[in-house]
Amino acid sequence: MAIRINSENKNNKIKIDLTKISKAAENALRALNNRNCEVNIVFVSSQKMRVFNKRYFGKDLATDVIAFPAVKDEISNHESRITNYVFLGDIIISTDRAKRNTKIYGLSVKEEITLYVVHGILHLVGYEDTDKEKFDRMKKKEDEIFKKVKRTLR
Questions:
Q1: Burial letters for 13-36: b for 16+ Cβ neighbours within 10 Å, e otherwise?
Q2: SS3 of 117, please?
């Protein structure tokens, strides 16, 4: 078995190289020692993201990334190898937000989207950003993984 990334762009306004983004997601999972797993990634408009955020989290605003972990508990303390084929969950990413944030953070659209993919994957494997300590821990891991997978985008 291997890592399987299912990706779909439902926002035709912004073109995405799904092959490169999927490869970046695979590399992020490998960097976290996750093998034999599956992740779904869907790219949507800010308008659609707002609908998801309101429906599932009660927040009537668009956001950059939402993750729906299939497993609610931490997966073997995040870093141990998954030995069986596991569906980790779904990630929804706003490509409009990614494009807008490039002006703020100085990344390309592809890099910004990849950062969101890494962030979503971290949520799928149990990382949280609900308080400062958890946020700092997740941000540190996010930066580490993003640096590793950024090379995939070239």
A1: eeebeeeebbbbbbbbbebbebbe
A2: helix
- Determine the Cα–Cα distance for residues 113 and 93; give it in Å rounded to an integer: 8
Number of domains within the chain: 1
Is residue 136 helix, strand or coil? Answer: helix
CATH number at residue 28: 3.40.390.30
pLDDT digits (tens, 9 = 90+) for 9-62: 999 899 999 999 999 999 999 999 888 899 999 999 999 999 999 999 999 999
CB 34 within 8 A of CB 3: yes
Ordered strands of the 4-9 beta sheet: 4-9, 37-44, 86-94, 65-69
In terms of Cβ atoms closer than 10 Å to its own Cβ (0-12, 13-18, 19+), residue 4 is: middle
24 touches 32 (CB < 8 A): no
Q: Domain of 43?
A: 4-153
